[in-house]
Amino acid sequence: VLPAADAVSLSKNGVLVEHLRLIVGERLVCRTDVNSEARGKMQGLNLPRTDTSDPEGVVAFIDTTSQEWSDAGLDLSSGVFIIHEYLPAVTGAWADAAPGQRTVQIDALWGIPDGLQYLDHDSFEYDLKADQIVSEYIRHKAWFVAEEQDGSWRRKSVRREMTRHSAISRDDVSTIAQVTHELAVAANSRLRVMWFVDVRKRNKARLFPWFAHTPESSDGRLF
User: Which pTM value belongs to this model?
Assistant: First the structure.
């Protein structure tokens, strides 16, 4: 996570590309976040992000985005750039849990989690006390978002024979529900947690909680 002002300074000094290459690698994703005050001044639901890119592409994105923020009258101290290695996962999921709540809500869809914002997906309700799924809605899922060879993220069609299959296993639903609830208890707050499921990369956990925020706020935290 780089404060926007620091990212701009490192970019101007010409060292940011090599730092990213050494620390993160060659296949990167850069997202953005701003504090609540700045978020209220911005238009649209989603903050700027890249698709899969290389260090040079991420630095160009940082330069362009920070200039757009400055032109819009936003103080760079209110924003950050969140840079991470691209995680190739079969499924993306969002889970919603609260410390005093017995059930956890989970939405899942193949591909990159961003697709859950606007594409049909599966939904589950998991009862922590009963230790079982108590409600599930396996929708007809015709589309998902995936990475192309050039790194771009595109909507792709689901094979006809798979459209009504669950995008996530029942065991993974159970694990995600329990861990998300534990995170909510530790934070003493209701949380919505983004998950990468069935990560296909050596030395990475198969289930990976990546980002969380409270439903009432755009401010988030990384794990």
Answer: 0.85
